[in-house]
Amino acid sequence: MHRHRSPRMPAPDPAIPWQDARMSEDSPVVKASQGGVTHGLDRVVGVLGPDRSLAERVALFAAAASVGPSFEPGLQPRKTLDQAIATGVIAATTLSAVTVVESAVESVGKLLTRGRTDAASSSARLAFTVGSNLLIGAAAEAVSRALPPREDERLRRGGLRVIANRTARVAGIGAALSGAIGAIDLLTEHRSKQRWVSRIPLALPAGVGLSAWHIHRTHIKSRAMGDTTIANVSPLSSIGIAAGVGAGVIGLQLGERLVAHGVSRGISRIAPNYDSVSNPIGHVVALGVLGSVIYGGYEYAVRRVEQGGAAVEPAYESPATSPMVSGSPESLIPFDTLSREGRRFVNMVLTQDEIATVMGEPAAADPIRVFVGLDTATEVEERVDILMDEMIRTGAFDRKVLCFASPTGSGYINYVMAEALEYMTLGDCAIVTMQYSMLPSSMSLTRTTLAVEQNRDVMHAITGYLRGMPADRRPRFVLFGESLGALTMQDVWQRRTVEAIDRDFVHSSLFLGTPSATQFAKAWRLNAEKIDPGGKMIEVDDFGDYLDLPDEQRERVRHVLISHYDDPIPKFGTNILLRRPWWLGPVDERPPRVPKSTGWRPGVSFVLTGIDLINAMEVVPGTFGRRGHDYREDIARFVSAAYDLPITAGQMVSIERALRERELEWAQKRVVTEQVARAREALLREFKSWGVSSGSDLQADAVLRQVLNGAATRA
User: Fold this and answer.
1) Tens of pLDDT along 389-439?
2) Is 356 within a domain?
3) First-to-last C-alpha distance (Å) of the chain
4) What are the backbone angles phi and psi of residue 16, rounded to the nearest 5°?
């Protein structure tokens, strides 16, 4: 008899240590599956680094390593979701930028040697790669050091310095990684049993390990220094997010690599002479594709938000009854052109009875509120003319105080300021404003030039009218702006002085959370003696700081900027990318509520401060705070002090109580009416599905009245 032998399995590959050499020799199924698993595992390991170019491995390391610093404390408390967004943006941006830079470094090196290293030995290629990275890194560092940061520098100069500095860092990482990887390749080149060592992915695990260590160190350091803004981001969740982002980074790089290589191959076929630079061009194109996708998403979001800004809320679907406000039956401005914020603004005007109840004395008049919406007229000149006609119709120039307020991006005028002014003047005031956008301030940054020009036209019209009035009959003319409204108002006088504001008949002004991009405020901060030789402008954190000023200085002050130390809006801007901001200077010189355990890293600090913008505007209706971009706690007192409207201590307490109660009541009304409107729509849809159409509106209204009356009875 012949003994049947199973075919012998091939010897295990010593370069793949995880291949099982003890598999069953008489099982073809096991053999086939084992080979497939081994091949698949090898491909997965290759994706993690060994099968990638040096530029991609450097980018993987840098992206993974950037996760750690993204967990440093910010100005505002951060949730786990906020952290995930920040980490993802920082890692993805780092990945794309480093890939482009390192590809450029490689291409420059090849151009310098005219590709003579392609056929050289491994040791020659290693020396070339390390040398070119070190040489280019040194040159970039020299450029960076030759351009020290200056507060008044142009964007081009600061950008060149930052790019040079980042290039030097990337080249240094490239030299270190290429040295480590090249040394391993040289050691295992002629040793087949140790060849598997070259398959170990170094870049990504090293970056992940560095981030894990940084996250652990950040939590310890922040607790020691009392920084609590990352207290809600647990270390375990942080590490999990870091691992998840690492996987996402790989996926993102695969997509970027696919696009870049496709472009590179196309360039090589069409223009072979440019083969040496085809790779970085491909990565630049891939980065452009990513940017186009992001921009397309942004434009879609803008359209959706604008639709919401024009929507009619159930709580404000009817025009105001007072003839002293825009959109009323007597008004020159149609109610349906006011936008969501405009309809809120005119409907929330105080009545004489409400003023008298709070102030303990009779009101002098019904307050005036003039609002010209973006849809009121097509051209700026038309909207200005309509504003002036509406002011004359309502008698705005005959009031004790005339306030020109510049709204935020969405058209919002701070309710607390408006009502405080109406209480303190006993209604003898007029607040006028003109909308320039229906988007949140963060989406309206591209419209600030239009807004400044529009406000300048309004100022010329108002001051021209005031100039024609007898001096003793002119109203007290004051200004107000919050957030983007502060920028668009102050920059009416950019490249001018505080004296120019005074010449425009402005008695005083109040600005909340002035953005860092405000040119007037920036010039004033850099050279206060030149912009404000009379010392009439100040910037304070809160009303306590204002009271701490010497009496003589307080009497001289006419223009007040309130900027909380932990408000990111006065701090966020391109300056964070270009140089260390003043508030992240030496630890012992940082202002209160600014984290002391956080360092400055251009890209990371920029993104984290951007995330802070979202959390800085979280408010609870009726609960006034003094945190981030919430200035409600101090507004009434600043209105009294800045606009020179003295009241008694008892009246101030009564005003502040009424402000809180009214804000909560209006917020509750908005929520209730919105929910009732949704319930009505649901009832109508259900009736329609039953085949009931005639009289369904009346039936729905009857059902809702019955339910609401029953709920009120039970309450």
Assistant:
1) 999 999 999 999 999 999 998 899 999 999 999 999 999 999 999 999 867
2) yes
3) 97
4) -125, 90
Q: Quote the DSSP letter at residue 7.
A: P
Is the domain of 242 the same as that of 335? no
Q: How many CB atoms lie within 10 A of CB 636?
A: 25
Q: Which of 19-23, 228-232, 402-406 is predicted least confidently?
A: 19-23
Angle between helices 632-642 and 415-424 (to 10 degrees): 40
Q: Residue 362, Cβ neighbours under 10 Å: how many?
A: 11
Phi, psi of 354 (to 5 degrees): -65, -40
Residues 107 and 255 in one domain: yes
Q: Provide the 10 A C-beta neighbour count for residue 328.
A: 19
Residue 413 lies in a domain: yes
CA distance 74 to 600: 11
Q: Which amino acid is at 239?
A: I
In the chain, the number of structural domains is: 3
| Identity of the highest mean pLDDT range in 174-178, 184-188, 229-233, 401-405 | 401-405
pLDDT tens-place string over residues 116-156: 555 456 677 677 778 888 888 899 999 999 999 888 788 88
Q: What DSSP state is assigned to residue 504?
A: T
- End residue of a domain, out of 266, 281, 305: 305
Q: How far apart are CA 245 and CA 212, in angstroms?
A: 12
Rg (CA), the chain: 33
List, in order, residues 6 or more apart from 43 with CB less than 8 Å away: 51
> How many CB atoms are located within 10 Å of the residue 598 CB?
25
Tokens 């021209």, residue?
464
Pairing of strands 368-372, 537-540: unpaired
Domain that holds residue 700: 675-714
CA distance 153 to 407: 30
Report pLDDT for 643.
Answer: 97
In a domain, 32, yes or no: no
Look up tokens 């004489």; give the residue.
352
